[in-house]
Amino acid sequence: MCSDKTGRPRLGTPSPSPDAVAAVEEFAAGLQAGHDQRDADVLNRQFAADVAWGSPFGALVDGYEQLHPIHVRFQEQAAAAPSVRYEVRHVLAVGTDTVVAHIARIVLDVDGEPVEPNNEPYRPFSELAMYVLIRRDGRWWLAAGQNTPMRPGGAVPAE
Predict the structure, then answer these.
(1) What's the topology of domain 18-116+123-149?
(2) Where are the domains of the chain?
(3) Engineered SS bond to 99: which of 5, 85, 118, 133, CB 3.0-4.6 Å?
């Protein structure tokens, strides 16, 4: 195992394999298709039965059986849903069959431009999600996800 100058172990590979990157890109494309088609079955097609999900509102949703009906309700509210674009931001392969990825869901205005984040609680918001994908029997599945709203100012400065 490699470590950095502080002696902490590096858990991921120096650069993820093309297969790992392709798995994340395919996952993001599935999210995009599910949103665009307003179809929870498409959105969730890569979610494992025992997926652990953290909502941007602090709720923990345990398993596909609990999460899928929530996504169905969201998709039924399609008329109010904004246009979005999913963007892969970071891929870390922590094993040959395990990938951690950050994928942004960017809310777009009517001209297809990103909506600037603000602190209005009920305005559609962009978010950054961390997803853990696991390969089983040659197929990649979502094992865990955590969504976090994007707010003005971006990252919290270290002090």
Answers:
(1) Nuclear Transport Factor 2; Chain: A, (3.10.450)
(2) 18-116+123-149
(3) 133
Residue 14, judged by CB atoms within 10 A of its CB (0-12, 13-18, 19+), counts as exposed
Which residue in the block uniquely carries the two structure tokens 């665009």? Answer: 36
Note down pLDDT in tens along the chain; length 159 residues: 566 677 777 777 768 889 999 999 999 999 999 999 999 999 999 999 999 999 888 889 999 999 999 999 988 876 666 789 999 999 999 988 999 999 999 998 888 888 876 666 556 788 999 999 999 999 999 999 999 888 766 655 555
- Chain center to CA of 147: 7
Paired with 94 in beta bridges are none
Token pair recorded at residue 143 = 């094992």
CB under 8 Å to 48, separation ≥6 — which residues?
A: 64, 134, 141, 142, 143
DSSP-derived secondary structure letter, 10: P
Picking from 39, 46, 105, the residue whose alpha carbon sits closest to that of residue 72 is: 39
pTM: 0.85
